[in-house]
Amino acid sequence: MAELETQLPKSPTGIQGLDEITGGGLPQGRPTLVCGGAGCGKTLLAMEFLVRGVTQFNEPGVFMAFEETAKDLTQNVASLGFDLEDLIARKKMVLDFVYIERSEIEESGEYDLEGLFIRLGHAIDSIGAKRVVLDTIESLFAGLPNPLILRAELRRLFRWLRGKGVTAIITGERGDATLTRQGLEEYVSDCVITLDHRVNDQVSSRRLRVVKYRGSTHGTNEYPFLIDEGGFSVLPITSLGLQHAVSLEHIPTGVPRLDAMLGGVGYYRGSSVLVSGTAGTGKSSLAAHFVDAACRRGERAIYFAFEESPDQITRNMRSIGIDLMSWVEQGLLRFEASRPTVSGLEMHLARMHKAVNAFKPEVVIVDPLNSFHVGSNEIAVKAILMLLVDFLKTNQITGLFTNLTSGGNESDQSDVVIASLIDTWLLVRDIELGGERNRGMYVLKSRGMAHSNQIREFLLTDHGAELRDVYVGPSGVMTGSARLVQEAQEQARKLTRQQEIEQRQLELECKRSALEAQIATMRAVFEVQEAESLRIVRQEQAQEAQLAQERVDMGISRKADATEKTPEGESK
Amino acid sequence: MSEEQLHDSTEAFERALARPREECYMLRLYVTGMTPKSARAIANVKAICEEHLKGRYELEVIDLYQRPQLAEGEQIIAAPTLIKDLPLPLRRVIGDFSNSERVLVGLDLRMKT
Fold first, then answer.
1. In Å, how far is A172's CA from the nearest CA of chain B?
2. How large is the average pLDDT for residues A78-92?
3. Chain B closest CA to A114's CA: distance in Å?
4. Is B34 within a domain?
C-alpha cells in the first residue's frame, strides 16, 4: 500500500472519508472525472476539493464554471461555510464563469479552444494554482457547434492539463448508457468517481463510488455520503478500523438483578448493548432504566427516539416509576425524536454524530433500531450501525439499542445482521404458559464477562423493572400465575413440614414431662420408704437402748457385780 | 393619435431599418499567435470587410497570447473569435472565416437562410 502511494502521488481532497476510500486522494497532476445525475453534488464535491486544497494543503485552485455564475456559486457554497470572496481576494482562488450563448455564436470554418486554454492557463499562472475544476465542461457541447472539433479539443485539453501538472476535477452529467452524456470518460481515464442520488422506498440516499482509479487500489463499494452544513462527507465503513481503546469500567444497568446477571457489575463502559424482543416486552423500559441510572450518577445521556415522542416516553416511564423529565430539566438528558423516514440513513447518522458531539453524553440510546429497516436495506443499516457503534466506542460512549423482532424466531434476521457488532445482547421475550403471556429475559451474550445463563422473569411494576427467578417445572419454565401457584405450593409444603417438626417437638416434650413425672413419683415413694425405714431403725435403736437401760436398772436393782460407775459398754 | 403622426413613425422606422447599413462596424478579432489558422482568419476577415463594409469598419486584431487576461473578460473560449461590438446586438463568429456566408450572417449583414 505504502509502496503504491510512492509510485502514484496523490492530492488529498480533505473531504471526510473520500481520502480513505481513494487511499490518499485524487491522482496528483491528473484529471479526475466526477459524474452523476442532476443534484447529486458534483459541483459541491469539486468546490470542496478546491476550498480544502487552499485551506488545508495550501494549494491554490481555479474553478471554471460553465453553468453557474461566480456570484451564484459564491452564494451557494456560503451556506457550507466557504467564503470564496475571501479566498479570491487572497489570491488563493480564481472563479471564472464561462459564458456561452449559442445564439450569439456563429461558426465559420474550423476553430479550436485555444481561447479556453489561454484563459485557463492565465488563471492557473496568476495564482500558481495546483488544482483545477471544470464544471461542467459538457456545457460546451450545447454552446458550441461542431462536436467533432470539440471532442478533439477536449482530448487536447486533458492532455494539456496533465502537462500543466494540475490536479483537475472534471464534472459531467450522467448519460443514458454512458457515465457522462458526452462520453468524457473516454478522455479522462485516470480516475472516475460517480455520485448517485437515489430514492428507495421514498427515502433518498446519496452514494459515491470510485469506478476506476488507475495505478492505485481503492475502495470499490458504493459509499453513502451526505451534504450538510459542514460540507461533503463520505462514510467509509472501514474508516475507523478497530483500534478503539476499551474500558474496564463497568456501569450499572439500572436494574440490580440485571447487574447480577451480568457478572454482578453491569455493562462495560463504551460497549454496545442490544435489547431485542417482540412487541411490548419492555425494551424501552430497560433503556429508560439505564438512562435513569446514568443520570443518577450525574452522567449525560441522549435518547434517540424513532417511534415515540419525548412526551410519550416520559409519560410511559413515569408509570413504572422513572421520572425522566426531571433529568431533562437538569440538563442531563436530551431527547432527539424523529421519524426514521424523515431522511436517509446517512443523514440520521450525521445528525446523531452532531448531537453526540454537541452534548457529549456518556450514554446513548437508540430506540428502536429496526425502524430503519425499510424494505431490504439491511446492508445499509448494518453499515450505518457499524459506523455508529465505531463512533460511540471511539468516544467511550455506551450505546444501548433496542430492536423489535417479529417474534417466533428469537434471533430474527435483522438481529443477525447487527448481532456481530454488539457486545452485550439481552433478549426479552414473551413466555406463553397457562393461558397468559409473561415477560422473560436472558443474556444472550455478553463479551468479556461471566454472565448468567438463567432465564429470569421480567416484571414491570410501578417502581420499575424487576427480575424474578423462574421455576423450572416438568413443562418448562414457569412464569406469572404458574410461578405464583408454584410458589404457593412450596409455601404450603414448607408450612406442613414446619408443623410436623413442631408436632414432634411437642411430643418429645410430652414424653420428657411424663418421664420426669414418673421419676418424681418414684422418688416420692422412695422418700416415703426411706423415712419409714429410718423411723424403724431409730425405733429399734431406741428399743435397744431401752432394753439396755432396763438391764442396768435390773442389775442395779439386783445388786449384781457391777459397780455404780461402770459405763454401759464395759459392763458387757 | 392623428393619422399624420402614425405616418411619420412608419417613416422613421423605415429610416431606422435602412440606417445600420451605413453604420460603422466595430470589430475585434482575437487570434492565438501567428499560426497558419490565425493568418488565414485575419486574411479572410479583412477580405470580407473590404468587400462588404468598405470604409465603415474598424477592425482590431488581438493576440490572446500577448493579452491573456482579455480571454476571461471577453468570454473567449474558441479561437479565432470575431466579436462584433457595434452595431448591437453583440455577435461572435468563431472559426477561420473560410465560409464567408456564415460570417456575413454572424455580422447581421445577411439573414440566416
1. 19
2. 86
3. 6
4. yes
Residue A572 is predicted with a pLDDT of 44
Which residue of chain A has the CA closest to B72?
Answer: A119
Q: Which residue out of B72, B84, B90, B109 would a mutagenesis test of the A interface target, given it has the greatest number of A Cβ atoms within 10 Å?
A: B72
Chain B residues inside the 8 Å CB shell of A116? 71, 76-78
Residue B88 domain-assigned (yes or no) = yes
Cα–Cα dist A219/A442, whole Å: 40
Q: Tell me the nearest-neighbour CA distance from B56 into chain A, angstroms.
A: 22
Q: pLDDT band at residue B2, thresholds of 50, 70 and 90? A: low
Please check the confidence at residue A2 and state whether its pLDDT lies above 80: no
B15 — alpha (psi -120 to 50), left (phi > 0) or beta? alpha
Are the Cβ atoms of A111 and B78 closer than 8 angstroms?
yes
pLDDT digits (tens, 9 = 90+) for A49-67: 888 888 888 889 999 888 8
Domain total in chain B? 1
Q: Is the dihedral of CA A57, A60, A63, A69 positive or negative?
A: positive
How many angstroms separate the CA of residue A145 from the nearest CA in chain B? 9
B17 is a domain residue: no
CA distances (Å), origin A61, targets A23, A45, A169: 22, 14, 11
Distance of CA A302 to the CA centre of its chain: 12
Q: Which residues of B touch A121 (CB under 8 A)?
A: 68
Cβ distance of B97 and A100 shorter than 8 Å: no
The string of pLDDT tens digits covering residues A305-352 is 888 888 888 888 888 888 888 888 988 888 888 887 777 777 788 778
Q: Is the pLDDT of residue A255 over 60?
A: yes
Q: Which residues of A touch B108 (CB under 8 A)?
A: none
Q: What domains does chain A contain, in order, with CATH numbers?
A: 2-234 (3.40.50.300), 250-472 (3.40.50.300), 479-572 (no CATH)
**Confidence check: pLDDT of A473 > 70:** no
Contact B71 A119 (CB under 8 A): yes
CATH number, domain with residue B93: 3.40.30.10
Nine-digit cell string for A553: 436398772
Domain that holds residue B76: 24-106
ipTM of the modeled complex: 0.77
Asked if the structure places residue B91 within a domain, the reply is yes
Q: Judge contact between A466 and A441, C-beta under 8 A.
A: no
Distance from CA of A116 to the nearest CA of B (A): 4
Chains A and B: how many Cβ contacts under 8 Å? 101
Element (H, E) at B99: none
- Closest B-chain CA to A115: B77
Mean pLDDT, chain A, whole residue set: 82
Q: SS3 for A540?
A: helix
d(CA A68, CA A76): 10
Average pLDDT rounded to a whole number, residues A479-484? 76
